[in-house]
Amino acid sequence: MDDDVAATQHTPLDAPGRSPRTDQAVQDDAEGDHGVAHMKWWGWGREGVGFDHRDKPRLRPFVLEQVDVDLDTPGGAVLDFADLPVPASRAPRELLDALASVVGARYVLTSAMERVVHTYGKSLTDLLRLRAGDLPRTPDVVVYPGDEDDVRGVLDAVVAAGAVLVPFGGGSSISGSLHPPAQEERPVVSLDLGRMNRVLEIDEESRLARVQGGVLGPDLEEQLGARGFTMGHTPDSFTHSTLGGWIATRSSGAQSDKYGDISDLTRALRVVQPGRTVVTRPVPSQATGPSVREMLIGSEGRLGVITEAWVQVHRLPEKREILGYFFPTFDAGVAAMRDIAESDAATTLTRVSDARETAFSFATRKKSRGVSKLVSKGLMAVLRRKGWDLEEVCLSFVGFEGGPASVKADQAVVKDLVKRHGGVVVGKGPGQLYDQKKFDTPYIRDFLLDRGALADVSDTAARWSQLLPLYRHVREEADRAFARVGVKGWIMCHLSHSYHGGACLYFTFAFRQTSDTPLVEYGVVKSAVQQAFVDAGGTLSHHHAVGVEHAPWLAQDISPAGREMLGEVFAAVDPDGQLNPGSVVG
Amino acid sequence: MDDDVAATQHTPLDAPGRSPRTDQAVQDDAEGDHGVAHMKWWGWGREGVGFDHRDKPRLRPFVLEQVDVDLDTPGGAVLDFADLPVPASRAPRELLDALASVVGARYVLTSAMERVVHTYGKSLTDLLRLRAGDLPRTPDVVVYPGDEDDVRGVLDAVVAAGAVLVPFGGGSSISGSLHPPAQEERPVVSLDLGRMNRVLEIDEESRLARVQGGVLGPDLEEQLGARGFTMGHTPDSFTHSTLGGWIATRSSGAQSDKYGDISDLTRALRVVQPGRTVVTRPVPSQATGPSVREMLIGSEGRLGVITEAWVQVHRLPEKREILGYFFPTFDAGVAAMRDIAESDAATTLTRVSDARETAFSFATRKKSRGVSKLVSKGLMAVLRRKGWDLEEVCLSFVGFEGGPASVKADQAVVKDLVKRHGGVVVGKGPGQLYDQKKFDTPYIRDFLLDRGALADVSDTAARWSQLLPLYRHVREEADRAFARVGVKGWIMCHLSHSYHGGACLYFTFAFRQTSDTPLVEYGVVKSAVQQAFVDAGGTLSHHHAVGVEHAPWLAQDISPAGREMLGEVFAAVDPDGQLNPGSVVG
To answer: What span, in angstroms and rounded, lies between the C-alpha atoms of A57 and A60?
Structure first.
C-alpha cells in the first residue's frame, strides 16, 4: 500500500480493547531477543495505535450515507491469538540444526506467533483470512540472518533440505506474495532480514549509498539524514517496509516525480541465488545486454534474496513545499497534471483527487483545523460565483524542492498551468497536513473492517490519453460489481506519480459486508476493478506488485509470451521452485 | 559509435579514387529494387562522402607528431569488390522458396554484394577483416520483410529449416554483433528491416509514438518533425542506425541528459520470438515482476526481432542552445559537470574534453572559422594571465532547451558552477559547430585507416567518484599497450552523458600500424583499454553494446552469475541457438 488515500486527518490513537486480543506473552515472543519488531499480527502498524473517527464529526454521517455502515458500532474483539488454529511446524530437526549452525539458535524460531506474523502480508484477503482463522499453512521456521554470509548459508541449507524459502521484507505486501501455498508439502522457511538494517557506505561525491536490504524506511532515512542525505522514497508503507521489499516489488514513493521509482533509485544489487550470487555495479548506465538489474527488481523473492543495494541519495533540499490547489472537475485536474509534466517546472509530486476522494477528505477533517479553513463558506461562495459545481471540486497537491529561486520559478509555472485549466491556488496549509499524515492512512482499513466495512485499494498506470476513459470504465465496472454483490459501494480515485507519457491512478473502494463470505464479496469487486484496468489499457498495478492476487491479470498485461518469459527465468534460476513458489506467475 | 570524437570541423567531401573500388553493377544490386539503401560495403557512411584533411592546415603536423602518420600519404585503393573471396550461399532451395513465399522473391537476395553488406558491422575489426578479404562466413540470404507478419513468417521458416537468423538494423554495430560465427554450419539468414520504416501513430496527448523498428534516424525525425515532435535521440551513428538497432544495443544519444537513454525512451515493444510474440504496454511504469521490457532492450537479436516500439517524443523546444566553456584542467571540468548534474539546472547535454581531445579539436579547425576565433592569441593571452597552463585547457559543451526564461535561468546556474570550478564561458559559436558536425566524425576512421593509422573508440560509465581514477588508469594502461606494440600511440577522452550518480567517459585512441597483423596490434590496445575499464570500477560499455568484441569482459562487469542469467534467458527463448548465436554471452 504505497500511497495514501487522501488528505485526511487521521490521528492514530490508542484503541485498547477494540482490536483482536493479543496474549502479551506470545507477542513478546514475536519480538523476542532477535531485536526485530513487527507489525500487529492481525493488522496494520504498531500495537496500540489505531484510527479513531470521534474527533472527525463529519465522517460518521458520510460513511453512513455512502456505505451504510455506522462507525459508532463498537468494533468487537475479532479473535484471540490463543484461538488461532496454528498448524504445527513441519521443519525437520536436521533443517533446524543446519539453520542454527549458520545463524545461531537464537535466530531460528518456530513459535506460533513468529510463524503467524510471517504467514501473511497485509492485503485485505490476508486480513480476512487471519480473522477467519484460515491458516492452512504457515512457515515452519523463521530465520533472522545477520549478514550476507548467513543468507548464503541459509539458502544452501534450504536447497540441500529440499525446502522452500520466502523472503519476508517488512511484511507490508498487499498482493499476497508472502504466504506459502496451502498445498506446499516441503518445509517452508521465512527469511526475515530485519537485522540487516545498516547503511554500509555513502559515496557523497556520487550521491549513492550502499545499504543492507532489511532496513525499514525510518531507520534508513535516519542513517542517511545524519549525514545530510535522503533517499526521498516515501511509499505509504514507508514505516513498515524495507529496502529489499521495495526493490522486490517495484515500489514507488509519493515523491517519485523527482526521486524516481525504486527501479530508478536502485543502481546496483547483490542477490543470493541457489549456488551463486549476482553482483551488479553501481554504474549510472550500461550497454551490457538485457538488464540483469531490471530482472532482479520486481522479482518478489523468486530470483533469490536481495541482501544489498546501491541506491541514489540526494542532499537534503534547501527548500521544500507542497502546495494545494482546487480544480472545478477531475478532467481539468488531470489535464493540468499532464501539462505540468510537460512543462519546464520540476516537481516532486503531482496529485489530484477526484470529487469523491475530495469529499472524503473534507469528511475526515477535524474541527477548526487545516482543510476546514479552506472549505469555509467564504471560499465556497467564491467558487460558486465562479460557476463551479461544488459537488465536483477536486483537491490537488503539487510538491516542489530545490533552491529558493528554482522553487519560486517552478511554482509560477505550475500556477499558470493550474489557472489555464480553471483551477485556483489554495496554498500551503493542506499540503503540510497531507505531508504530516501520509503514513497514517493504512490504519483506517482495520478500523473499518472491525465495523463491517470491506475497504481496499487498487492502483494502475496508463498513458495520459487513456487515463480519463480508464477512470470512467473502472467506476462503471465497480458500480456493476457492487450491484452484483447487492451493496451500495463507494469508489474514489486520485492521480499521482506523473511521468512523461502518463500517470498512476489510485483507487480506493469500500462497501458493507453483507454475508459471511466476505472474501467472495471482496473478490467480485476487486476482480472487476483489476479487469477494468487491463481492459482500458492500464497495467495490473503501478506499484503494488503481482504476488498471487494480481497474477491472474499478468498475461493480459505483459502478453502471454511475456509471462512465459518470466516463468522461464524463474525456472532457470530455481529449477526446483524453492524460492517463494506461486508468486508472480502462479 | 554513438557519440562523437570532438568539436571537429570535418567536412565530408567527395573522395573519388581513394576508397576501395566498387564495381558499379554490383553496388546497384546492393541497392536493388528492395528500395533500402546501405552504407559503403567497405566503410562508414554514404558512397562518395569522406573525410578530407586538406582544408585543416594544423591537422597534418599534429597527426605526424602524435602518431607518426603523414596524412598526405595517398590512400590507395585497398581492395576491389570483385577480388573479395565471397563464399557461395549455402541457403537450401527449400528455405529460399519458403522465404520467397512469405515476403516475395523480390525481397529475398543472395547476391555477393547483399551478403557482404550484411556480413559485418563497422567495428575496426570488421573493417580490417573486410580489407584483408577475411570472409570465412557470410549470411546465405538477405530478406527484407514488409511488416510484422512477414517477420513472423520468416522466423517460422528459419526455425523450421534449422537455420539461423541475424537481425541487421542499420549495420552500424561496432561491437561485432552482426556477423555469423565462422564455424556456423547452418544456413544463415540476415533480416533487414529497412522497409519497415514508418511512424505508425503519434499519441500527441501522451507524447508517445508507435514506430516500426527498421526506421533510420533521419527518416524517423522527418516523420516526427512534420507533426512538430522530436524523439531527441541523436547517437553518433544517427544517420545510419535504426530504432530497432538502438533498442537492441542499449544506445544512448548525445542529448541523453534530457531525453534519456534508449531504455528510458522505449516505453513498449513488440518482439517476434520463436513460436510467440511478446507485446508490452506503453504504460509509464508498472509493478509486473522482472521487467520484460528491460529484458528485450539490449538483447542484440538473441531474444527475437523488434518489430515495433512505443517511444517518448517531445514537442520541438521553443529555444535550443549549446554553449561552449573552457576549464583549466580536466579535473575541474569533470567536477563542474558533477555539480551541474546535482544542480537545479536542466541540461540536454554535458560534455567536457580532456586536454588532448581539446588539442585535437583545435588541430582540426579550418582557417578563420568557429573555434579558431576562440583560440585567438587574444583569448589565450587572457587565460595565460589567469595562470592557466594552455597545454591543459579543456573544451566543454553544455546544452539547454525549453522556454526562454527556463533556458536563461539554467544557463545562469551553469555559468555560476563553471566559474566556481575556475572555468570561463566561451559562448555559442563552438557549440553550433559541434552540433552541425556531430554526425561526420565516424568518417575519419576510414580516412586514417587508408593511411596506415588504426583508430577506434571505447566508452564506459562509472560513478562520479571513480571517473578520474578510471581516466588515469585507462591512460596508463593504453600507454603500456602502445609500448608493447612498439608505437607512439595517442589516447584522448571526453566526459558525456551525465546522470545522478555518474557519467560516461568516451575514449578515442590511434596508432600507426607497424606490422601486417593489424588485428593483433589493435587487440593489444583495445583489450588493455577494456580491461582498465572493468578494473577501475567502470562498465564494459556505456552505449556500444556487448556483441562478440566486448563479451570477454561481461562476467567481470555483471558478475559470472549475471552472465549466466543472460545465457539462461537466451537458452529458454531460443533453445536451439538460432537467434544471432555468439553475441553477448559468446
So the answer is: 7
- Consecutive sets of 10 residues in chain A, 586 residues long: mean pLDDT of each? 34 40 45 85 92 92 94 80 95 98 97 97 96 95 98 98 97 94 96 98 98 98 98 97 98 97 98 98 98 98 98 97 97 98 96 97 76 64 91 96 95 98 92 84 91 96 98 98 97 98 98 96 98 98 97 98 98 98 94
Phi and psi torsions of A391, nearest 5°: -70, -15
> Which among B7, B116, B40, B87 has a CA at the least distance from the CA of B450?
B40
Beta bridge partners of A395: A326
Please give the mean pLDDT across all residues of chain B: 92
pLDDT in tens, A454-469: 999 999 999 999 999 9
CB of A158 within 8 A of CB of A109? no
Q: Would you say how long chain A is, in residues?
A: 586
At position B10, the amino acid (one-letter code) is H
Are A236 and B521 within 8 A, CB to CB?
A: no
Grid cell, residue A584, equals 508472480
In angstroms, the CA A191 to CA A211 distance is 18
B406, B462, B561 member nearest A283 (Cβ) = B462
Question: CA–CA separation, A425 vs A418, rounded Å?
Answer: 8
Taking the C-alpha atoms of residue B490 and residue B487, their distance in angstroms, rounded to an integer, is 9
Identify which of A314, A298, A333, A334 has the alpha carbon closest to the alpha carbon of residue A258. Answer: A314
Catalytic residues of B: 506
Q: How far is A444 from chain B (nearest CA, A)?
A: 24
Distance CA A130, CA A550 (A): 20
Quickly tell me which residue has 567531401 as its cell: B13
Tell whether B584 lies on the interface with A, counting CB pairs under 8 A.
yes
Q: Are B274 and B578 within 8 A, CB to CB?
A: yes
Letter for the amino acid at A222?
E
The residue assigned the cell 587574444 is B378
Residue A415 — φ and ψ, nearest 5°? -55, -45
Separation in Å, CA of A524 to nearest CA in chain B: 22
Task: State the residue for C-alpha cell 463470505.
Answer: A517
Search chain A and give the residue with CA nearest B272: A561
Among A278, A466, A504, select the one facing B565 at the smallest CB separation: A278
> Are B166 and B580 spatial neighbours (Cβ–Cβ below 8 Å)?
yes
d(CA A329, CA A392): 5
For A530-576, the pLDDT digits (tens) are 999 999 999 999 999 999 999 999 999 999 999 999 999 999 999 99
Kindly state the cell numbers that stand for B119. 556480413
The DSSP code sequence of A353-385 is E-HHHHHHHHHTPPTTSTHHHHTSHHHHHHHHH
The three state secondary structure string of A487-520 is CCCEEEEEEEEECCCEEEEEEEEEEECCCCCHHH
Inter-residue contact A181 to A204 (CB < 8 Å): no
Phi and psi (nearest 5°) for A442? -60, -20
Amino acid at the residue B565: M
Nearest to B463 among A203, A402, A562 (CB): A203
What whole-number distance in Å separates Cα of residue B557 and Cα of residue B541?
Answer: 10
d(CA B259, CA B230): 10
First to last CA, chain B: 21
C-alpha grid cell, residue A222: 535516519
Q: B505, B461 in Cβ contact below 8 A?
A: yes
CB B374 within 8 A of CB B69: no
